[in-house]
Write a structure and sequence with these properties.
The structure holds 2 protein chains of 2 kinds. By secondary structure, chain A is mostly beta strands. Helices cover 0% and strands 48% of the residues of chain A. Chain A contains no helices and 11 strands. In chain A, the strands form 2 sheets. In chain A, strands 2, 4, 5, 6, 9, 10 and 11 form a 7-stranded mixed beta sheet that branches. In chain A, strands 1-3-8-7 form a 4-stranded antiparallel beta sheet, with no helix packed on it. Chain B is an all-beta fold. Chain B has no helices and 12 strands. Chain B has strands at 3-5, 10-14, 19-21, 24-26, 33-39, 46-52, 59-61, 64-69, 74-79, 88-95, 102-104, 108-113. In chain B, the strands form 3 sheets. In chain B, strands 2, 5, 6, 10, 11 and 12 form a 6-stranded mixed beta sheet that branches. A 4-stranded antiparallel beta sheet of chain B has the order 3-9-8-7, with no helix packed on it. In chain B, a hairpin with a 4-residue loop joins strand 8 (64-69) and strand 9 (74-79). The chains are: A mainly beta, B mainly beta. Chain A binds chain B through residues 31, 33, 35, 40-45, 48, 50, 56, 58-59, 88, 90, 92, 94, 97-98, 103-110, 112-113, and chain B through 6, 9, 31-33, 35, 43-45, 47, 50-52, 91, 93, 95-107.
């Protein structure tokens, strides 16, 4: 009964290092999302993917890249980590995208988060 | 552009009091979808409720109720007879009808004091 799995759960990096956060879902969902959560800022959307092979920018995409490797997996990469990227990162998935004939009222399922510190 | 505003950063009430969390949204889409999520101290995000823009019926689930008012672009959440277990951060979220972007408000941290 895994749902959305994020790895790692914790990571400490030095400025300038690169890192890939992994996310996998086993619910056969089409849409996947990456958010960051910072104190007082709520959840901010970094990138999302409506379906395998497509990705789109969210509110705060600078400094990040994503890959929708297949339907199950959506990774987030920091090429050159900066202290401003210290945050808790959440991956989420949702069953269907709007273009697939579904209403947009399907809730997201979230992973447990990755706490990332950049020194 | 879509926007969700949760003006109440933090609220503290004594147990058994009623409390309302405000959510005001902006969107140009004529069809849109609203959500509430709860984030307890353990950190996970838990879905509470969803509302379609074309369905203005208010909803009650136990001690929880939601008031959707299109005229004021608000989707407020009320907890009746609050309990300590309701202490959490609550997020309101919005999804339009043109893409799959889902935007969250900054959240309201709710403290229920025993």
């Amino acid at each position: 009964n895994a749902g959305v799995t994020q790895t790692p759960k914790f990571q400490v990096l030095k400025t300038g290092q690169s890192m890939t956060l992994q996310c996998a879902q086993d619910m056969n969902h089409n849409s996947m999302y990456w958010y960051r959560q910072d104190p007082g800022m709520g959840l901010r959307l970094i990138y999302y993917s409506a379906s395998e092979g497509t990705t789109d920018k969210g509110e705060v995409p600078n400094g990040y890249n994503v890959s929708r490797l297949n339907k199950r997996e959506f990774s987030l990469r920091l090429e050159s980590a900066a202290p401003s990227q210290t945050s808790v990162y959440f991956c989420a998935s949702s069953p269907l995208a709007l273009g697939q004939g579904a209403l947009g009222n399907q809730p997201q399922h979230f992973g447990d988060g990755t706490r990332l510190s950049i020194l | 552009a879509q926007k969700v505003t949760q003006a109440q950063t933090e609220i503290s009430v004594v147990e058994k009091e009623d409390v309302t969390l405000d959510c005001v949204y902006e969107t140009r889409d004529t069809t849109y979808y609203l959500f509430w999520y709860k984030q307890p101290p353990s950190g996970e995000l838990v879905f509470l409720i969803r509302r379609n823009s074309f369905d203005e019926q208010n909803e009650i689930s136990g001690r929880y109720s939601w008031n959707f008012q299109k005229s004021t672009s608000s989707f407020n959440f009320t907890i009746t007879a609050s309990q300590v277990v309701d202490s959490a951060v609550y997020f309101c979220a919005l999804r339009g009808n043109r893409d799959d972007k889902i935007i969250f408000g900054k959240g309201t941290r709710l403290h229920i004091l025993p």
